[in-house]
Amino acid sequence: MKCPHCQSLLAANTARCPGCGFCEQALSSYLGDQWVRLERLTDRAHALPMADSQRLLHQMDAFERQFPQVFLAIYIGSLPPLLNPVELGMWLLNHGAFSTHQFAKRNEYGMVCTLDPAAQRFGFAVGYALEKVLPEPTLERISLEMKEHLAQGHLAAALEGLLARLERIYRRHGQPQSAQLEEAILPGRAGNPRDFGLTPLRQGHQSKAPTETSSPHHS
After folding, report:
1. Distance of alpha carbon 171 from alpha carbon 117, whole angstroms
2. Gyration radius of the chain's alpha carbons
3. Which of 29, 51, 174, 210 has its CA 20 to 30 A from that of 202?
4. Cα–Cα distances in angstroms (integers) from residue 185 to residues 102, 110, 111, 189, in the given order
């Protein structure tokens, strides 16, 4: 696995990155500890035309019927410089309540694709139960395929290709084994999930505004 902040390679079950000091708890202090509703497709940037959104949702319906034990959530929106797509995706896995019309799904079987179209940044956060099915080399290949579409301005094609690739991978591997997610809180940064168009399910920790000294920097 890689550190969500600096992208350094980490050993399994590493709680804190030895390079930059990042840990999962920092995300809770940045965005709060409240749970939010995690939709299959959140287009905060209004980057997808209606026809593309509907076609993608139909493809996601078929995906969920094939693999009811897992889920994919896609978030499209502008992110602040202090937050990268993988970090937001990890926070959503830990604090997002994802459900279908039939039943709620366990987040350790989830994958979140977060994409900032204006900055041409995107990344994946993968639940612990899927890490063996979606190791870093596999995610890198998926990233290369998406970059080719995005470089040509084909956002919908990039996301449809992501779904198609995941379908092939999951068919090969079958049902993954379960694993346990961890949650914690550590002061560090500040933000509000409402800024990203996310709806809290209950009132929780309200974080303070970010400060230059407490906020890590991205290159």
Report:
1. 30
2. 16
3. 210
4. 32, 21, 22, 11
pLDDT tens figures, 201-219: 665 544 444 444 333 444 3
Report which of 215, 146, 218, 212 is spatially closest to residue 187, judged by C-alpha positions: 215
Kindly state the helix (H) or strand (E) to which residue 106 belongs, with its residue range.
Answer: none
Task: Answer for the pair 81, 15: CB distance below 8 angstroms, yes or no.
Answer: no
pTM: 0.75
CATH number where 151 lies: 3.10.310.50
Q: In 3D, which of 91, 88, 49, 102 has the Cα closest to residue 182?
A: 91
Is residue 172, in this structure, part of any structural domain at all? yes
pLDDT tens digits, residue range 97-125?
886 655 567 788 999 999 999 998 999 99
How is residue 50 written in tokens? 């209606």
